């Protein structure tokens, strides 16, 4: 299908320079020039042959060593039962020179939140978007978290963003108490590796002792059942 898509796009959207990238492993894709992304999407949706009537995902990948950001559009035709990954690349840019693409919100309404998220995380501006702003981070957040050179700001609104002791101690203490009180504490999971180091050691030791006690009892019971079974077979 990819070669047919390329042939169609190059004929329908002059200058889009559609190229098929056939993967030996994983998903193949079609790449186009960023200037023509909206025209390409319109052509694919309106095509009587491809009928790409659904935009499933817009995502991005940062390639700082190439000074580029790749934007991926995963399209589908629920009519033809087909799927297509459409890719384009833009220069990374900073500050007033962020990369720009034309919004496709008026082609697929599902693009609205996805374009906002791609902007929020990677700093790609979608021009003519009906409600263009961040979607996950506050509007005045600094930087774009999925860029590979992103460094989190130390404070936001006088709050430390990433403190060294960023541990939910109340959560850990809750699970420790559950292990002490539960009939079978081995069935109580926790949230952190080596979580006992973060809470009151007396509480942690009681929880660990209770788990060890039940594990030992389970092992003794299993050994007794195995021994009894072996004697019965004799």
TrEMBL record:
It is a peripheral membrane protein. Residues 30-155 form the NADH:ubiquinone oxidoreductase 30kDa subunit domain. GO terms for molecular function: NADH dehydrogenase (quinone) (non-electrogenic) activity; NADH dehydrogenase (ubiquinone) activity; quinone binding. It comes from the Bacteria. NDH-1 is composed of 14 different subunits. Subunits NuoB, C, D, E, F, and G constitute the peripheral sector of the complex. Belongs to the complex I 30 kDa subunit family. This is NADH-quinone oxidoreductase subunit C.
């Amino acid at each position: 299908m990819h070669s047919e898509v390329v042939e169609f796009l190059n004929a329908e959207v002059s200058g889009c320079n559609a190229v098929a990238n056939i993967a030996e492993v994983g998903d193949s894709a079609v790449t186009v020039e960023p200037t023509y992304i909206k025209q390409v999407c319109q052509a694919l949706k309106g095509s009587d042959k491809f009928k790409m009537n659904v935009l499933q995902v817009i995502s991005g990948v940062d390639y700082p060593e190439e000074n580029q950001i790749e934007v991926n559009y995963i399209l589908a035709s629920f009519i033809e039962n087909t799927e297509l990954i459409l890719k384009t690349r833009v220069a990374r840019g900073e500050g007033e020179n962020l990369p720009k693409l034309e919004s496709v919100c008026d082609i697929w309404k599902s693009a609205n939140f996805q374009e906002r998220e791609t902007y929020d995380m990677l700093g790609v501006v979608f021009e003519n978007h009906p409600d263009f702003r961040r979607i996950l981070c506050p509007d005045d957040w600094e930087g774009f978290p999925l860029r590979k050179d992103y460094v989190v700001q130390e404070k936001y609104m006088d709050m430390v963003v990433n403190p060294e002791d960023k541990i939910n101690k109340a959560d850990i203490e809750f699970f420790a108490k559950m292990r002490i009180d539960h009939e079978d504490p081995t069935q109580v999971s926790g949230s952190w590796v080596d979580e006992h180091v973060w809470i009151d050691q007396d509480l942690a030791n009681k929880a660990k002792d209770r788990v060890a006690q039940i594990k030992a009892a389970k092992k003794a019971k299993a050994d007794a059942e195995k021994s009894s079974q072996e004697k019965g077979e004799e």
